[in-house]
Structures are given as structure tokens and as C-alpha cells.
């Protein structure tokens, strides 16, 4: 058989590689390091290529390719989703209905939750009693015990709690009321802690359950215009990372955090601004963001495979996670450069994010 060597015409190993019988055993021995080096380079190139096109951390993508499928693990499970009336929570509800999970849908807007419930029932084989709407205000902590009791009365169990409800922020620190910071912490952090506090004892009694919480890329990194939002997500990361190790004697309990980069949803239009009650003025361009179905699918894979921390984001955001984790000084410098642009866009009345990627559109 005639095969060509990629080393070039002058390659001294060619006769030994392609015509082993012509060479001595010693010559074959000298080839081995070169072959190994080539294999290592090819492997590295393949991994780099994989990373360029990756949209989640490599553990999560491994689980997606070779791990347990959500269809198998989550069928029949009782999953309680907060923030199910829109965006990521709404899409999670649809995909969970598709896999046959029983659902509790919570948020403040009951009408929107009913719309999501109807859509869940239409697209799946779930029965009326398998999808329940339970209005919930994360800020009303006094109500959380009774709402949790209502879920347990209906289903008798909670297998997965998805802490997803929350709001973001678009405002400069120097211009923002401290009340905005209080509201962000009360909603994103304390509201989530409060629901978890009600649900966890039930899971521990049963010896099984998953509490998964939608944090953010800014739960790990920082970003201008989101000082309070980022702080609330950092608080969640710290809280759940500590809780996970506190519960390490409970092997049936999984505590996981989900860190998405930008995902298509209503998050920007619902963000807090400088003052409570004032809404965001710039229109958000969503083209550069990950689609909601892809984000939800990756979350379900992470839940099915008990992945503790999920980084979900298209490039360059995924790379940003890695730089932040493994080269923080470089990450801080990068954040300063990109952050300057973000602040400039914002001050010019443009959508702060999309102007990174597209020609900025004025609102
Ligand atoms: N989209 C992104 O780029 C992105 C990136 C990273 C992390 N996240 C996180 O993903 C989660 C979902 O956000 P999203 O992107 O899907 O935005 P979204 O479309 O605005 O959805 C937010 C959800 O939170 C609910 N919510 C807000 N305030 C609440 C309250 N006081 N009590 C109960 N529920 C409340 C909303 O429902 P009601 O208004 O009906 O209450 C809504 O269902 C959030 O935690 C967000 O921080 C999003």
C-alpha cells in the first residue's frame, strides 16, 4: 500500500513508518516519540477546535454527549420552577414537560403561568393534575412555608427545586439608590435562600433531591452596570458552594449552580435601574445571545447528571469564564477594557451589551 508521509520529502522516518519491514527495530524505536508528539498535537488541535465551538464547560458537554439523558432521569419527577412565567424558566417548563416531569410553576404573574401551563399540557402527555400553578413572590418570605406545604399536599414530594426567579440591573453605582441594592439582594439572594430553606428539610427527610440555582456569569466574574446584580449572584454562589459541603454527609442531595452567559429572555427589559420603579429605556438586541431552548437543554443535562456548577455560554463568554477562573489578573484587565465600552454605550443611551458585537442601535 502506498501512503504519503506528511513530514515532507526529506523525512528520514518515512521508510520506517510506511514500510516497517524495511527498517531496523532501532529505527522504529526512534520514531515513537515523533509519532506520540504528532498524536498529542492532533489531540490538542482537536480540543482547541472543540473549545472554539463549545457553548458550555467541558464537563457539562461531556455529560451531554456521554452522560445520562434527562428523558430517562427526570420522567415522573416533581420539579418546582420559580420564575416560570417567562424566559429561561418558561423554556425549562416546556422541556421538562416534554420529558414527562411533573411541574410546579411559580412566579408573580398568575395569568402568564396559566399560559405556560396550558402550553405544557398541549405539548406533552401530562395530565391536568401533573402541572400546577402556584403564584409566588420571592420577596414575600412569610408566604414561602405555606406555598411549599401546598406543593407537598398536591404531589407529596419535591424532587428538584429550580431557583430561577430573579432580576438583573442596568445602572451605574454612583447614580443608583441603595434601595435598589437592597431590592436586588432581597429578591435574588434572600428570596432564593428562603425557598431553599423550606424545601431542603423535606429533601433531607427523603434522603434525595436536587436544589439547582440559576446564578450567572456575573456570579463568578464582575461587570459594570451590574454591581448589585453581580453581588447578589456572588452571594448565591458563596451560599450554595458552602451549603453543598455542609451537606456532604447527605449523598442523595445535590446542590448545583447554573452560570449562564447572555441568554435570550426578558431579563434586560425587567432589570432594575437607578431607582425602584424606573424601567430600562434602551432596547435590548438579543441576536448575540444563546437561544433559550439551548440553555434550558444544557441545564436539564446538568441536573440529570448532578453537575455541581454549570458554565453555559457561547464564545467569547465561555472563554471569559475560563480566563476568569484560571487567569484572574488577565480577566480583570480584560473586564476593564470591555467594561469601559459597556459604560460608554450605556451613557450614550445604547444597549450596553449588543454594541459589543453589532453596530449599536440607538434606542
Ligand atoms: N437571560 C440571561 O441572559 C441570564 C443570564 C444569566 C443569568 N440569568 C438568570 O436567569 C434567571 C431567569 O431570568 P430570565 O433571563 O429568564 O429573565 P426573565 O425573562 O425576566 O424571567 C425572570 C423570571 O423571574 C420572575 N420573577 C421576577 N421577580 C420575581 C419575584 N419577586 N418573585 C417571583 N418571581 C419573580 C419573573 O416572573 P414574574 O414577573 O411573573 O414574577 C420571571 O418569570 C434569573 O435568575 C437571571 O438572573 C439570566
TrEMBL record:
SUPFAM superfamilies: NAD(P)-binding Rossmann-fold domains. Residues 77-266 form the Ketoreductase domain. InterPro entries: KR_dom, NAD(P)-bd_dom_sf, Sc_DH/Rdtase_CS, SDR_fam, SDR_family_member_7. The keyword NAD does not apply. Keywords: Membrane, Oxidoreductase, Transmembrane, Transmembrane helix. CDD domains: 11beta-HSD1_like_SDR_c. It comes from the Eukaryota. The chain crosses the membrane at residues 21-42. GO terms for biological process: lipid metabolic process. GO terms for molecular function: oxidoreductase activity. Belongs to the short-chain dehydrogenases/reductases (SDR) family. This is Ketoreductase domain-containing protein. The lineage of its organism: Eukaryota, Metazoa, Chordata, Craniata, Vertebrata.
